[in-house]
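Obj: model holo form, ligand = inosinic acid.
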Amino acid sequence: MAIFINEPSHTFNEYLLIPGYSSSECVPANVSLKTPLVKFRKDEKCPLTMNIPMVSAIMQSVSGDKLAVALAQEGGVSFIYGSQSVADEAAMVRRAKSYKAGFVTSDSNISPDDTLADILALKEKTGHSTVAVTEDGTAEGKLVGIVTSRDYRVSRMDPGVKIREFMTPFENLIWAPEGTTLKEANDIIWESKLNSLPIIDKDGKLCYFVFRKDYDTHKQNPNELLDESKRYVVGAGINTRDYAERVPALIEAGADVLCIDSSEGFTDWQKFTLAWIRERYGDSVKVGAGNVVDADGFRFLADCGADFVKVGIGGGSICITRETKGIGRGQATAVIEVCKARDDYFRETGVYVPVCSDGGIVYDHHITLALAMGADFVMLGRYFARFDESPTNKVNIGGTYYKEYWGEGSARARNWQRYDLGGDKKLSFEAGVASYVPYAGTLKDNVALTLSKVRSTMCNCGALTIQELQQKAKLTLVSATSITEGGAHDVIQKDTSAVIK
Ligand code: IMP
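Output (holo structure tokens):
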């Protein structure tokens, strides 16, 4: 006979936090949102900790290299999407890793025999006005000059004029050798009143630019998440099919952490993938697995060697898995059960395997609820898709801006590996939809606002750390009527939409 769980499974919206005692120390400025990303043994330090409990979803419409840099600057981690060729994914990881906090691999390069028209076309494409002129026109070629918009006047010059005729030639440039620190580069930029400083190697080849504005950005990001060589921490998605090819390419490209992207984590396929990684790399390659929604699924993946376990089936905003397949579980119930299993596993084995709550975050306070229920961090798709840095188009519909957002199981993404259950059959039905989400501006502004709410609620619960929140939180289920009571009610709301726009 089948097992029946007659208690309904619940969503975040059905829970509220009950305030606890807040001491005078309990102010948002004292809250730390540091959290472990990968497993560690009792009494050992977690080898990879994030400064904020947020990672971005492994999705084409969410996690490209731009978002990866923007999120790492705030202290979280992006998982670059795996539903693209191995070479393209590795190139994205490489691009994100080349943002060596303040040191930028030049993305606008040209050769001296190209023309003003070529510069204008390049500027249109990259949006950048500083162009490196290298012998072979590549980002690593021998530097022969620089062109900025101050070097030409489009209205007075022939578009066919060669770049070597109007560039600032190498002999007039101020540059610095490879190995220069960011502080030294910044001093040169200030003393010589430069906007950019090329860093070149002993053969005169271009390594990076340091831009004045990037140094300022670096100072504005106190939470940024850097690896040992001061590059942003970047994650990447893998699947259970082509790992023997994809994993080495991603590691070679510099990925710090991987995650198996699948709608179903409780499978032999994940076991084989994790076993292959452990056999080949031992514990040096960090890899999360999922998704699961109960204690059995968690224990299976923890025993298989997952570095973190991702929870959630059917709760994503673009997800129609529950409708199409009839599987899933209310996200809050799934997180609560899996986190209990994680704590039991820790007590038994001394190994702490972090839990990621994936999908279904609608309001900012759902993040605080997920953390209070035991999640170590949350994965968000819709949330990040709304920002400038997500890889999708911004479209204007009826005077309002939106960003495109589509599921990995939609016909648009065609990520059949995510839904693969072996055999030859590729994805034969859709498990996700294509949609629009309201455009919301920059990641930085939004993450700051979201986390200010999280910190504030944590203070109301008397918690200065996520671990403390997990121990102290008091959560209550709410009735359908009290959900109505939670919004503005019994008043006629003034229409403020005109002001907000
Ligand atoms: P969101 O934050 O609610 O938008 O959910 C994002 C999560 O939905 C992702 O991290 C995936 O786990 C999941 N997901 C992505 N694409 C699909 C899909 O096409 N169908 C079902 N779930 C999806």
